[in-house]
Amino acid sequence: MVRIGIDIGSTVTKAVVMKDENIIVHQRVPTGWSPKETGNRLMESLKSNHSFHESEIASIVTTGYGRKTLPFATRKVTEITCHAKGAFHLYPSSRTVIDIGGQDSKVIRMDDAGNVIDFMMNDKCAAGTGQFLHVMATRLEVDVSDLEKMALLDEPVQINSMCTVFAESEIIGMMAAGASKESIASGLLNSVAGRISTQAQRIGIEETVFFSGGLAINQYLQQAIQEKLNKRVKVSPMAQYTGAIGAALLG
C-alpha cells in the first residue's frame, strides 16, 4: 500500500508517494490561480504516470494553505504538524524547523520524537517570505534564483524596511544612488535571514535546526541564517517536499 501527501502552497504544490516510509515518487507544479484544479491535476498525474494502482492508495493527506480544497483527501492536517513530521523524518536530530514559504514564514520547536512543542508563524504580511524576494527580484530585473550568486559578488547594503512596499521604495532609492544589484541582492537575503532568525529566537532554538521550503536550496541564505543564529542549520535535497512528506507519514 502507498500513502500520498500533498502540500498545496501559495506558489508551488508538492506531492510525494511513500511506501514503507520510503519516497517512491515526488512531483511539484506551480499552484496557479486555483489550488483545487492544481491539486486535482497533480493527483491525476501521479496516478497515470507512476507504477502504482489506485487500489493501492491507503491514504491521501493534504496540507498547506489549500489543503481544504481537495474533496478526495482522507485527512487534512496543518502545515505546522506536517513540517515537523517531515523534518524529523528527513533529519531525525532536528529540534527546530525554519520554513520560509511563498506567503508566510514559520519556526517550529519539536521534542525528541518530532512532536510540536511550540511554533511562531508570520502570515499577516509578505515581509521576509518568498513573495518578498520575488517582488524585489522583479524590481532588480532578475530571476529570484539569481539572487544567491549575485549576493556573493558584493558586500550587502543595509535594508531597513521589511515591508514589501517600503523596501521596494528603499531599493529604488539605492539604485538611484548607484548601489549595485549585487549589493542589494546580498542585502535582501541578509534581511530575510535576520527576520526569520529574530522570529526563531523568540520561541527558543534547539539544535539541530532544519531549513525547509523552496528557499532552503539558497546556500547564501542558509549560511546567513546559521551565522545569525550561531547554530547548525541543516538542509535536505528534499527540503521543498518537507510538508508533503509529513502529510504522507500522517496518513
TrEMBL record:
Keywords on record: Iron, Iron-sulfur, Metal-binding
Domain ATPase BadF/BadG/BcrA/BcrD type: 4-251
Cofactor field: [4Fe-4S] cluster
The UniProt record lists the keyword Iron: yes
Signal peptide per UniProt: none
Pfam families for this protein: BcrAD_BadFG
Keyword Protein transport in annotation: no
Molecular functions per Gene Ontology: iron-sulfur cluster binding; metal ion binding
Cited InterPro entries: ATPase_BadF, ATPase_NBD, CoA_E_activase_dom, Dehydratase_Activator_Redct
Record protein name field: Benzoyl-CoA reductase, bcr type, subunit D
